[in-house]
Amino acid sequence: MRVFLTVNPRLVAGARFQTVRAMVTALDRLTDLVVVPLDRIDFRRGRVEGWRRAPGGRFERIGMLTPRGALWINYSDGFYLDPVALGFPGPGAFLAAQHALYEDALASGRIDRVVNTPAAERATLKLWLAGAGRSVPGVIPSYRLAVGSASVMRARLERLRTRLGPIVVKPDWGGAGQGVVLVDSADAARAFAAKHASDPARVHPLEHWCVQPRVAGDEKRFWFTGDACVDARVLVRRPPPWDPHAPASARIERYWFDDGSEAKPGKRATRRDDGVAQFLRDRTVAIAVWRASGLEVGCVDLIGDRVNEINGAGTTFTQYRHWTRVADARPALVAWVRGLVRQCGGGTDAPAVEAARLRRIRP
Hints:
By secondary structure, the protein is of the alpha+beta class. It has helices at 18-30, 91-107, 118-121, 150-164, 186-196, 271-293, 330-343, 351-360; strands at residues 2-7, 32-37, 41-42, 47-54, 58-65, 69-74, 111-115, 143-145, 167-171, 181-183, 209-213, 219-225, 228-236, 251-254, 297-303, 306-311, 318-321, 324-328. The chain has a 5-stranded antiparallel sheet. It has a 4-stranded parallel sheet with strand order 2-1-6-7. The longest helix is centred in the last third of the chain and has 23 residues, at 271-293.
């Protein structure tokens, strides 16, 4: 059974990337795995440069080929790459080409299943929260800011700021806090509009902006595989992405109660009871948004008790505090990948081998 896995190009160059390496190890033992660096795809011809896993954590180039197989896992959307260097006019066209590649592979029958599907990955765009995701309870209100003239953009920002207070403006597609701006004054609105104004006829539909009210609170991340929430972490007093001089988070902790207990009515409240109850409320909100998105692997992020954004392809399933691993959801990810292979008609290896592998990647 042949499986394709789209990855960050740095993986085949030797980067550690523990999450995707755990996936590669599991898939390589079960399938005929072809690793595809995202920057080595010929989108016009629908061909990819394939690589195989080699001893010592290395990768060996196979060559260019047309993807044909049972499964294609998209685990990198490339927001970190320069689309112009890859021959695209901008990021919107690059992302649209990725979606078209997977949709064509499915429609032609060359690939039986894609994870995450392009339709589901569209839920990771910030403006999904302003559209289809708007009706899901617990979502931070989100609004569209279309690229246009400076005067039109400034007027839209000022109206939203008057209504919502200080606002945060984010690219529709992006990650790692890149391009996130706080607009908390008329001068900030004027500066943002002047910098990003453009002829709307030349702007790709995926290159507009998402606006949210500034929300205070700790950042909580809930990891998902399939329909299950498998782990979570919290960044206490996370510094805002628009302030490069802000101090680092005070604490990074695992955010999970293994016993699944709930605060019992009539029982004297304790700090742990309060924590369990809040965790259960947050997890319920995250699950509702996750199920509405249609994604199969990724995470849901909350600021305080409201959903801030959703992440799919490329989600890291670990969290570190300096060199200490605080949370590790890779065992659940590996188990899900193995189940996915079985669903697609692939093989399995002995339970003892699987147990040994999971032990090796635990903290």
